[in-house]
Amino acid sequence: MLLVAEPGLGAEEILALAEVINSGWITMGDRVREFECAFAAAHQVADAVAVSSCTAGLHLAIEGLGLGPGDEILVPSLTFAATVNCVIYAGATPVFVDIGSLDMPHISPEDAAAKCTAKTKAVIAMHYAGYLVDREAWREFADSRSLFLIEDCAHAAGVSDGGELADAAVFSFYGNKNMTTAEGGMVFARDPGVRDRIRQMRSHGMTSGTSQRRSSGEVTYDITSLGYNYRMDELRAAIGLVQIQKLGRWNERREALTRAYRRLLAAQCSNVSMPFPGLRSSAHHILPVILPKGTDRRCTSGRLWRLGIQTTVHYPPVHRFSWYRSRFPSTRLPVTEEFSDRELTLPLHPKLEEHEVEFVVRALSDVLGTETLHDDLLCS
Q: Which residues, including other chains, have CB under 8 Å from residue 74's CB and lie 6 or more apart?
């Protein structure tokens, strides 16, 4: 089976884990701090805060910026639900914004502007598929309206300037990401005070952690703010320290495979389009394609599966999920909805070979060429 995503784990990660276990210290400590510094340096920012997940990081970023009840935050619906869930966690109200177009499935500045109110305090821009939004334009958008800009960088690890202009930016190290720690995330914040607040909130609001007290000889601590158990442990940090050394070449491989997909789809499957035409900074996290109108996606996906090709969807729109639909019943995002209905994610990861990309494209072309809409025999 050619998988949509596959982590790159091996002997170096096993050795790093063994070293942590042999050290006798597995909770948050020196390796977490080393990983924070390495990740910040790779992205050309001053510092970073490692957390247990990207979800935890988004929650901390929102609260660290002082956002909460009574505030509205502009959010995409074309994203994983965590992006929006975290707004709810903080007690703020998400305001769903449509994407710009099928070719450019980023949150739309025009729709965002139309949905700003006196209660709007922030906007979350998500780098869908690893392609960076126009950060300068969004920085200007936020500054002109006195809004905070939060970048959801879950797809964008390794893009050197990702998160650089945001008030806060959050990365994911989930198992399907460009680099992984199994679970985990990283937070950037421009304001050192916000960053310090996030660092303290990740560990119950405590003034010192266990590792710090062990090193200093202190026996007690204070809690000066409400906090959470959002810490990263030494085991995950050790994996991260190995993975970040490989991230650059892995992303280069992803870029080469993406170019191959784009070339082959244009030649063999011209009725299928790929978003983000032209040059654009990207981590090339996933490979989304837009199927022709009227295609039975379930049938197409099922037939590819039987040929040994896994596919998935990025993403079902958040506003269409039952929980959100019951709370925001009037939300309509026509471009997001069309994109989501026609999108299919093809395999993309550094272990993939170019001949396998050729096989995927040829299979997709054959499936679409022979598909009969709603043909129960083909789809069974």
A: 95, 97, 107, 112, 115, 116, 120, 122, 123, 124, 147
Choose the catalytic residue: 115, 177, 293, 351.
177
Which amino acid appears at position 160 of this protein? S
CA distance 39 to 76: 26
**What's the rounded Cα separation, in Å, for the pair 159 and 163?**
9
Class of domain 11-241: alpha beta
Question: Domain spans of the chain?
Answer: 11-241, 248-379
* Residue of 276, 51, 285, 314 whose CA lies nearest to 157: 285
CB 234 within 8 A of CB 20: yes
Going 277 to 105 to 125 to 41, the CA torsion angle's sign is negative
**What is the tens place of the pLDDT at every residue in 227-282?**
999 999 999 999 999 999 999 999 999 999 999 999 999 999 999 999 999 878 99
- For residue 225, give every residue at least 6 positions away whose Cβ sits within 8 Å of its Cβ, in sequence order, or none: 197, 200, 201, 205
pLDDT of residue 221: 86
Neighbours of 375 (CB within 10 A): 12
Do 312 and 76 meet the contact criterion of CB atoms below 8 Å apart? no
pLDDT in tens, 43-66: 999 999 999 999 999 999 999 999
Specify whether the backbone of 125 is left (phi greater than 0), alpha (psi in -120 to 50) or beta: beta
- Please say if 177 is a catalytic residue: yes
Assigned fold of 248-379: Aspartate Aminotransferase, domain 1 (3.90.1150)
Per-residue pLDDT tens digits for 124-141: 999 999 999 999 999 999
Q: How far is CA 31 from the centre of its chain?
A: 24
Q: Cβ distance 309 to 345 under 8 Å? A: no
Q: Choose among 373, 380, 317, 314: nearest CA to 346.
A: 314
